[in-house]
Design a protein that fits this description.
By secondary structure, the chain is of the alpha/beta class. It folds into two domains: about 210 residues, Aspartate Aminotransferase, domain 2 (3-Layer(aba) Sandwich), CATH 3.40.640; about 130 residues, Aspartate Aminotransferase, domain 1, CATH 3.90.1150. About 40% of the residues lie in helices and about 15% in strands. The strands form two sheets. The protein has a seven-stranded mixed β-sheet, sandwiched between helices. Strands 8-9-11-10 form a four-stranded antiparallel β-sheet. α5 crosses α10, α7 packs parallel to α8 and α12 runs parallel beside α16. Bound molecules: pyridoxal-5'-phosphate. Pyridoxal-5'-phosphate binds next to α5 and α6.
Length: about 400
C-alpha cells in the first residue's frame, strides 16, 4: 500500500493504484455507478451475478429480493425479451430458449412423460415432426398426426392419456391457417400449443382464442433481422414455471446477447409485419397472374383453401410467406434460383428484412418420404418466398425477369 494523500478522499483510486497489474487487469472493466440511466437497454453478458453474502443469496433464491444468480437460470436480457413477447401474446409469462427447437423441447420435456399421448398437425415445421418422431421411437411418447384442417379429426384422436395438442397458426410451406377456435372446441380439455412463428402476435394471438401455450422461433419475425438463433414460449405462470425449470435443468436456455438483439428487433415488429404482409399480398397476386407459375399458396388470396379462415382470424394481414409451384416443376427450380442469386437469394430461413427464397422439398421437408411429401401437397417444384420489407416493386420486377427466362 502506498501512503494515502491525506487531502484526497478518493480512497478507491488510491487502492486501485496499489494493485498489481494482474489484479488490475483481472478485475478491470468497471465504471463508477452513475445517475443517468442508459437510453437503451444494456447487455448483461455475464455468466453469473455477484452476491453481497450468503444472506443475499438466500434472499434472491427465496424471491424476497429481485436478483439474478447464474445466467443458465436467468438473466435480465432473458427476462426483458420474454416479458415483452408474453405481453404481445396476451400471456401471463414467457421463457426464452436457445432456439425455436429449444422451445419445442422445453414444452415437451416439461409437459410430457413416457406413455403420454400427443395429437399433432400432420404438416408441421419439419424438425418439429422429427422431434415428435424421436420422442415416439425412443422415449415411449405416443403421437397421432392428424390433418389440422379437420378439427373433428384432431378431436377424434384424443384419448384418456392425451396431454397436448400441437398445431401451427400458419403452416409451413402451404400456409394453411388453423381454425383454432374449432380445434380448441374439438379437443376439449386438452391443452393446445400453437407454433405462432409465421403469424406473429401482430396478426394472431392464439391465447385470446383459448390456446394454453404459444411458442416462436424468435430467429424469424420476432428478431426479424436474420442474425439470431432464439426461441420463446408464452403461457400462464404455472406452465412457464415448468418450462423454465426444464430450460435451466437441460441447458436449453438462451444466451443474453441473442435476447438483447431480439429485443432490439422486436421494437419494429408491428411495422415490419404490416409491411411484409402488404408486400406478400402484392407478390402473391402478381405470381397468380404469371404464366410460369401454376399455383400460388397465400391465405390472403381467395384461391387459397384457408381464405375464409384467414379473413376471420387474420384480419390485419396474412403474413409475409408465399409459396408457389412452377409450371416447369422441379426442372424450373435450379434455373430460377440461379437467376435470382444476386437479388432474391436462396436462404433456408425466413423473415429476414430482405426477400429470400427457399425450396421446401430440398430443405425444411427434405427428411420426409418423397411420396408422402408429394401426397401432402409439397411438390418438388414448390418454391417458398419470405417476402421482406424491401421495395415490392423491385421484388416483383426481379421475379418477373427470372420467371420469364424459365424454359
Ligand atoms: C424455424 C422454425 C422453427 C425452429 O426454430 P429454430 O429457431 O430454427 O430452432 C420452428 N417452427 C417454425 C414454424 C419455424 O419456422
Amino acid at each position: 500500500m502506498t501512503d494515502r494523500d491525506p487531502a484526497s478522499d478518493d480512497a478507491t483510486s488510491t487502492d486501485e493504484v496499489s494493485l498489481h497489474d494482474e489484479s488490475l487487469c483481472a478485475r478491470g472493466g468497471w465504471f463508477d455507478e452513475f445517475t443517468t440511466p442508459p437510453s437503451n437497454p444494456p447487455l448483461y453478458q455475464t455468466t453469473a451475478f455477484d452476491l453481497h453474502g450468503v444472506e443475499h443469496l438466500e434472499a434472491v433464491t427465496s424471491g424476497a429480493e429481485h436478483g439474478y444468480i447464474y445466467t443458465r437460470d436467468g438473466n435480465p436480457n432473458h427476462a426483458a425479451f420474454a416479458a415483452d413477447v408474453a405481453a404481445l401474446e396476451h400471456a401471463e409469462a414467457g421463457a426464452v430458449c436457445a432456439s425455436g427447437m429449444g422451445a419445442v423441447s422445453a414444452i415437451f420435456l416439461s409437459h410430457l412423460k413416457t406413455a403420454d399421448h400427443v395429437v399433432a398437425g400432420r404438416i408441421l415445421y419439419g424438425r418439429t415432426s422429427q422431434q415428435l418422431g424421436e420422442l415416439q421411437k425412443r422415449f415411449g411418447i405416443e403421437v397421432t398426426f392428424c390433418d389440422a384442417n379437420s378439427p373433428e379429426t384432431l378431436g377424434a384422436a384424443v384419448r384418456d392419456n392425451t396431454k397436448l395438442c400441437l398445431v401451427e397458426s400458419v403452416s409451413n410451406p402451404l400456409m394453411e391457417v388453423v381454425d383454432l377456435p374449432a380445434v380448441i372446441a374439438a379437443v376439449g380439455e386438452v391443452p393446445v400449443v400453437v407454433d405462432n412463428t409465421f403469424a406473429t402476435p401482430c396478426l394472431f394471438r392464439p391465447i385470446d382464442h383459448g390456446a394454453a401455450m404459444v411458442f416462436h422461433s424468435a430467429s424469424k419475425y420476432l428478431n426479424g433481422h436474420g442474425d439470431v438463433m432464439l426461441g420463446v414460449v408464452a403461457g400462464n405462470s404455472h406452465a412457464i414455471t415448468k418450462v423454465r425449470r426444464i430450460t435451466s435443468l437441460f441447458g436449453l436456455n438462451a444466451n443474453p446477447f441473442e435476447c438483447w438483439l431480439a429485443s432490439r428487433g422486436l421494437r419494429t415488429l408491428p411495422l415490419r409485419v404490416r409491411q411484409a404482409s402488404q408486400n406478400a399480398l402484392a407478390v402473391a397476386k402478381f405470381l397468380e397472374g404469371h404464366a410460369a407459375v401454376s399455383r400460388v399458396y397465400y391465405p390472403g388470396l381467395s384461391s387459397h383453401a384457408s381464405f375464409g379462415i384467414a379473413q376471420r382470424l387474420l384480419p390485419h394481414g396474412a403474413g409475409g410467406m408465399v409459396s408457389f409451384e412452377l409450371q416447369a416443376g422441379e426442372a424450373g427450380v435450379r434455373p430460377l434460383f440461379r437467376r435470382l442469386v444476386e437479388t432474391i437469394p436462396f436462404s433456408p430461413t425466413l423473415a429476414d428484412v430482405r426477400t429470400t427464397l427457399s425450396w421446401p422439398a430440398g430443405t425444411s421437408h427434405k427428411f420426409m418420404d418423397p411420396d408422402e411429401r408429394r401426397a401432402r401437397g409439397i411438390s418438388d417444384g414448390l418454391v417458398r418466398l419470405s417476402v421482406g420489407i424491401d421495395s415490392v416493386d423491385d421484388v416483383i420486377s426481379e421475379l418477373d425477369a427470372a420467371l420469364n427466362q424459365l424454359p
